[in-house]
């Protein structure tokens, strides 16, 4: 088995290919070249889709509000995925809150915020993993099963009375031509990682490499098997040390969303990067960590975030109605719940 590690998308990425059974990989050196190519694909797509890189394609889209924009095939693909998730979740998964999250101080890659006293009262602890017991608990408003109107409170409003209207308009004549409504900024941070990893996985499969793992900070595709045996995946329990569960996965994806890592202080209040579009504030939820299993990592990623935002009661009820292969949640009190579909 060949392995490669590198940093991208704000996390540690691990590639592992079990090549003995793959007809497309004839030797270890060829396997190394393929993994290097995968790294290059991931890094290139991140540069194109990150909201933190001034002048890249996403930046240009966000600065072309109200006008038609000819997007690349890559940006077109992930925008369609994000738009679909937004509509399917009735706006709870909201990839158009770039202005809101930047206004809370999250304007650059998180590791660059560390130990910085920024403008507008932003302070990031030198220890990025602040205690998960801090922060609020779910309120009636954050557990509501309908979306509330927050019109006129921000330029990022989009959901009114449970009816979701996307700020993206697609051309009827050109598949890649899109218009972003004025007042919105696209933030693909909640879905791009899964989508990028899926493109990397497709690259390997197109070359007859079927047995591999791509792990991007806990969001991973486990393709095929490891010499005929399942891939072993541990789900972290952030409340107590150790794993919440250890899973054996074959030909499956898993995405985890949590409130326990990317936390900082804004105007004296502790916030995190998962925004509830109903409040335009960090989600106040009893779920510390939510993991979803799905054949598609892109789908698993946005579902995990939508589950977390809603809290355990409504979130689990909602997820049970969606197509997925199972889920694991860790609650603030340390309780672990799970089910397999």
Task: Please give a handful of descriptors for the protein shown.
341 residues, three-stranded antiparallel beta sheet, alpha+beta, single chain, T-fold
Describe this structure in words.
- The protein has 341 residues and is α+β, with helices and mostly antiparallel strands.
- It has one domain (1-341): T-fold (Roll).
- Helices cover 27% and strands 27% of the residues.
- It contains 8 helices and 20 strands.
- The strands form 6 sheets. The chain has an 8-stranded antiparallel beta sheet. It has a 3-stranded antiparallel beta sheet with strand order 3-8-7, with no helix packed on it.
- The chain starts with a strand and ends with a strand.
- The model is unreliable at 115-163 (pLDDT under 50).
Topology:
Layout: E1 2-8, E2 11-17, H1 28-49, H2 57-62, E3 68-70, H3 73-88, H4 98-103, H5 110-113, E4 122-123, E5 159-160, E6 163-164, E7 168-170, E8 177-180, H6 192-206, E9 212-216, E10 219-223, E11 231-236, E12 243-249, E13 252-258, E14 263-266, E15 269-272, E16 275-276, E17 281-282, E18 287-294, H7 297-310, H8 312-319, E19 326-331, E20 336-340
